[in-house]
Amino acid sequence: MSTRDTVRFYLEAGLRDSAAAGAHNFIGKIAGVLADAGLTPDYVRGTKAARLAGAASGALSLSHMKPPVGPSGLTFRRVYHYPFWQIDQTEQRWEWDVVRQEFAPEKIDPKEAERFYGFWQKRLFADAPARGRDDGFVYMPLQGRLTEHRSFQSCTPLEMIHRTRAAWPDKRIVATLHPKEVYSTAEIAALEAIADRDSLLDVRTGEMDSLLPTCDCVVTQNSSAAFNGYFFGKPAIMFAKIDFHHIALRGDDPASFLRIADHRPDYARYIWWFWQDQSINAGHPIAPAKIAARLARFGWPVTP
Questions:
Q1: CB environment 178-191: b (16+ within 10 A), e (fewer)
Q2: What is the pTM of this model?
Q3: Where do the domains of the chain lie, and which CATH numbers do they carry?
Q4: Are the C-beta atoms of 278 and 98 separated by less than 8 Å?
Q5: For residue range 120-166, what is the model confidence (pLDDT) as tens digits?
Q6: How many CB atoms lie within 10 A of CB 268?
């Protein structure tokens, strides 16, 4: 089989073994689409050496969550929860096609959206959304690099705290460190210094499951906690670019802090649109057709 007839999948060790055994649902569906187009998958470990060799070969490739390999490479990754996936030209979610799409709720069947939304509320969070309430505090999930202003952000995470406090001088803020992030001593010291001066700022680690049901809103850079907040009807202010930005308010707009009290987008229709229309539901019969359409979108020799 020639290189141009082979599609390399660059995967982590466990995922590579699962894919090679035909045990991964989404990768298996991609492989079926490729087979229909006369292409053969090759599952390899996504090591630096393998990726460098792949870039030089110019072969078609798919990388899991990592940057595409070579000019013909694409990336695939989960859209926050299984079985929803996306295929795109970059691993950076804020550059995905969906970011530039218009969310038009009036075009979506409200009954189907409510059914879908209710199903996933229960599937992901059991009865927690039904027991949700507003306890008068801001939930602020922090991510990494607290003192850095990265290109996709409107300010540093620590500056986000300052701007939120300036907008809401009397509101309690619960800021949480990400349990899987590694923070430097300097970062933690800077955060603790802010907390020492602000009696209404509570710093914790994790606790999303207890904070989402009871917060008034979510303020973050682009944490997936804000996406999960949509299932609880919690409005979000975001200080960074991300794929699920369409119904969030912008942190770089001071008016957002005034508007959020009355900001109640149609969460049900949005979740249906974002997942069922814009993403690939690997559990739906139409998944192979949507995979083929995505591959064809980027010029692959696949018939949509």
A1: beeeebeeebeebb
A2: 0.96
A3: 3-95+279-297 (3.40.50), 105-276 (3.40.50)
A4: yes
A5: 999 999 999 999 999 999 999 999 999 999 999 999 999 999 999 99
A6: 24
